[in-house]
Amino acid sequence: MSNEALTGANLKTPSAAGIAGLLFSFLFIAAFWLLRISVPADPQEPGSWLRASSGTVALAMNLVPFAGIAFLWFIGVLRDRLGQLEDRFFATVFFGSGLLFLAMLFLACAVVGGILFAFTTKPEELIGSATFHFARAAVLCF
What we know:
Helix content: over 70%
Mean pLDDT: 82
Shape: elongated
Largest sheet: none
Radius of gyration: 20 Å
Strand content: under 5%
Number of helices: 6
Order of helices and strands: HHHHHH
């Protein structure tokens, strides 16, 4: 077998992978909708949402990794569709910004997960702490 035969073969993504963009958008919207209905917009709210809606918030946070995987598939499908027509600078910026978006999304989810975990261990101490207010304000930016 020659090297040309091995490297010349073009691997194509499955056509079903195009659905990844729709799956990403569905999961992403579902996660944000669950957060929006569970967490009040007022940052001065004393934390009663943690008692009432922590399960819904945890469900939203569990959807985010699957949305991230679908987003990576979506980026892969787009780059495959462009193929040789894709500009190297555009490819670098597109891929880098996609990874940065996912990193920031996962970081925000880690902050929310930290709030939920800290609330389950010591709920009284968390609500009055500066850490809770900082994390709550950071989640609002999410």
